[in-house]
Every structure is written in C-alpha cells, then in structure tokens.
Amino acid sequence: MTRLRLVVADDHPLIRAGFRQLAAGDPTISVVGEAVDGRSLLELLHTTPVDIVTLDINMPGPGFRELIRRIRTEFPKVRVLVVSMYPEGELALEALRAGAAGYVNKTHAESELLAAVRKVGHGGRFITPALAEWLMTETEAGSFAGHRLSRREREVLELLAEGKSHKEIAATMSISPKTIGTYRSRLLRKLNLKTTADLIRYVVDHAPKP
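User: That's the sequence. What structure does it adopt?
Assistant: Structure tokens below.
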C-alpha cells in the first residue's frame, strides 16, 4: 500500500507532534516533513516529494491566502488541507477560494482529522457539515446565486458539498438513493454544471464575500 506523504505546517510543536502520533497509528499516512513557517514550508516542498500539506492559518511568513496560492501554482500536485483553531466560517471560505482542498477545525476528533487528510490526499475535497451549513445559510433564503432551489434541493446540495454519498444522503433524508440521483441531476441542470465536484466548487464560489 502506498502511503500518503504528509507535511505538517504549524508553528506549535504540540500540534506537529500530535499529527506525527496520529500518522504513526495509520498505515495509509506517512509524515515526511514539518514546517514552522511559510518560508520553510516552501523550501521543503522544493526538496521533498509530498502529496498533502496540513496548513495552519496563523504561521509566521506570508499570509495563508498567498501561501496557499503559491503552493497551488508552484506545486500543483500538492493538496492543501487547512487545519485551524478557528471555526468553520469566513476564514474557511477564504482558504477554499485561495485553493485549499479542505478545512477542518483542530477541535475535531482524531478520526475526523485523519479522514480529512485521507480524502484530500486522494484528490477529494473535505468540507465539514458545519461549514456546508454555514455556506448554505449565508445565501439568500430560497435562492442560490440567482437560481431558485427548493428546500429539498438545498438540503441535497448541502449534503453533497459535505462529500456524502447518494446512499448516505438517502439515509439522512429517509428517501431512496435513486431519488437523490434525481435531485443531483436536477441541481446540475439548474446550475449548468456537470459533476458533483462542480457543485462543491459552485457552493464555495457563490457564497457571500467575507
């Protein structure tokens, strides 16, 4: 099994040690480096093969928006997961718009942090239920970027943005997976999109500006 190569970028030694401990108990993840500021992170990425970076917002050096953009530009294959002390809200939206593939609060359970690393490291996006709900409730009630959506459509869109499968959404909403597929197709048609990944990007891009 090929392990995800992880770099932990955080200026708090306890956080870096915590991630090393978590990864030591997970056969799918290997910590290949640590960084304490933006400059050392960029230098490390130039010399070390990396799949994913967990990034703290408050590290010394370039602001997190600039740092994420530079990583996405200079190392396009490296995925960025922001792991922050701040709750899922405006800063999370800014990080996602800058190019992060996910955002998770440091207070979440160890299992959720590892799940976020795995999902982002394998090319997915990680949006917590709290962030998905915030993105949706910040939009105008009953509409989304000018498109009229029903309550059910908005609920399906929120759960899709969280990365839930059709089966998981069906269980949550007590309807069939086939019906969820119908809602997804309707959303794609209404919003003129092609994939579920497009739907997630659409939610992020059309949420109100911080």
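The chain has two domains: 4-126, 132-206.
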